[in-house]
Design a protein that fits this description.
This protein has one domain: Winged helix-like DNA-binding domain superfamily/Winged helix DNA-binding domain (Arc Repressor Mutant, subunit A, Orthogonal Bundle). By secondary structure, the chain is mainly α. 70% of the residues lie in helices and 12% in strands.
C-alpha cells in the first residue's frame, strides 16, 4: 500500500481536478471555489480571515479577490473605524455562483465516496478532522 502522504495528495489532486473542471464551466478559476464556499458559510469577513481559513497566502487571496470583484462575484469595502482591513461579501451574482458550486461539491463528493457505506464516510470524516487538528496543533507548537 502507498504511504499516507501520497494517498492524501493523490486523492486531493483527483478530487480537485474534478471540481475545478466543473467550476471552470461556470466561469470560476482556481482559488475562487474555496473563497466562495467560505463566504457562503460565514458571510462577510476580512481578507486575512479568508486566507487563514482557506489555507491560501494573504497576497494570493488579494489577487483572487480582485479578479472576483471585477467579475461581480464579491464586494470589498472598508468598515467604519477600520481603515486597515477590507471586508469581503458576496454579491447576488456571487451567491448564485456559490450555490452552483455547492452542487458541484456535492456531486463530486458523492462520486468520490460512491463505494463507501455511510459508516465508512463518517469514520473517514472523523479521521480527517483528527488529522487536520493534529497537524494544526503540531504546527502551532513549533511556532512557540
Amino acid at each position: 500500500m502507498e504511504s499516507l502522504h501520497y494517498l492524501l495528495m493523490k486523492s486531493h489532486a483527483m478530487l480537485s481536478r474534478n471540481i475545478l473542471s466543473k467550476a471552470n464551466k461556470i466561469g470560476l478559476t482556481p482559488g475562487q471555489p474555496k473563497i466562495l464556499d467560505f463566504l457562503l458559510k460565514f458571510g462577510e469577513a476580512d481578507q486575512k480571515t479568508i486566507a487563514a481559513y482557506c489555507e491560501i497566502e494573504p497576497a494570493t487571496v488579494g489577487s483572487i479577490l480582485l479578479r472576483m470583484e471585477e467579475n461581480g462575484l464579491v464586494l470589498r469595502r472598508q468598515k467604519e473605524g477600520n481603515r486597515r482591513s477590507l471586508y469581503v461579501s458576496l454579491t447576488e451574482k456571487g451567491k448564485i455562483s456559490a450555490e452552483n458550486l455547492m452542487n458541484i461539491f456535492n456531486e463530486s463528493e458523492k462520486m468520490a465516496v460512491s463505494n463507501m457505506t455511510d459508516e465508512e464516510i463518517k469514520a473517514l470524516k472523523e479521521k480527517l478532522c483528527k488529522l487536520c487538528d493534529t497537524i494544526k496543533l503540531n504546527n502551532e507548537s513549533k511556532k512557540e
